[in-house]
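Final report, Chapter 2: Outcomes

The project's central promise was a pipeline that accepts a single protein chain and returns its three-dimensional structure in a standardized token representation, suitable for archiving and comparison. That pipeline is now operational. To close this chapter, we reproduce one record exactly as it appears in the project archive, with the input sequence first and the structure output second.
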Amino acid sequence: MAKNPAGGPQPALLGEIHPTALVHPDARLGRGVIVGPFSIIGPDVVIGDQTEIGSNVVLENRVVIGARNRIYHGAVLGTAPQDLKYEGADSSVVIGDDNTIREYVTVNIATEEEECTSIGSGCLLMAYAHVAHNSHLGDHVIMANSVNLAGHVRVDDFAIIGGMTAVHQFVSIGAHSFVGGLSRISKDVPPFVKVAGVPPIPAGVNSIGLERRGFSVEQVGRVKEAYRLLYRRGLRREEALEQIVSGGRDEVVAVFEEFFSRAHRGIVR
């Protein structure tokens, strides 16, 4: 174990709970957890190793947080859903590893018994973002300042949502997509696509993002051809997907197939 200059263990290895914080004795805190001033942690909360909880953070109900997360000042996670149909069901918020949750982010538990609202790993939720009940974020999602997700929204891996965007309930936002700021999203956003506006319109393929993530020239080409089928040929969604698949199945096509198997609000046009 590393030593500090005074000869004792490093505080971050043992963890630190500020004397003004209220941590219920039944809460389970992992190794090296830091809890800042005036934070409140309820009895059913689980916090993974080396996670840092800032000041004035509230974690209540059943919140399960993984390792190495950083949760900033004023975030409130695990509160009851803002849904008049909620009747006190025992549900949860589940958060993965290595996330950054900035100031005043709010995340609500699910509305139904034993269901959850979830955030994957490696995500960045900027200040004042809101994740409503039963919503699910994949890995490496970025939500900019004041993005608001309604209930039952799904955001897939590596999607980016620009600031002050509102997302309607039950919408799906596909993997590697990019939503411009100040948008109003009431339809599904297909994978790999850029959209923006009120109402939003498609603006091409997120090719720069794909290149940064290591997609090959051939894979980006397949995405662009899929975009043309969805948006330039006047085809219905089912017809476009059939032609996308007819070109041969690969990793890109699998993402489209999985997305359209569960996205039913109609796509942004």
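Archive annotation: The chain is about 15% helix and 25% strand.
This record, like all others produced under the grant, will remain available to the consortium after the project formally closes.
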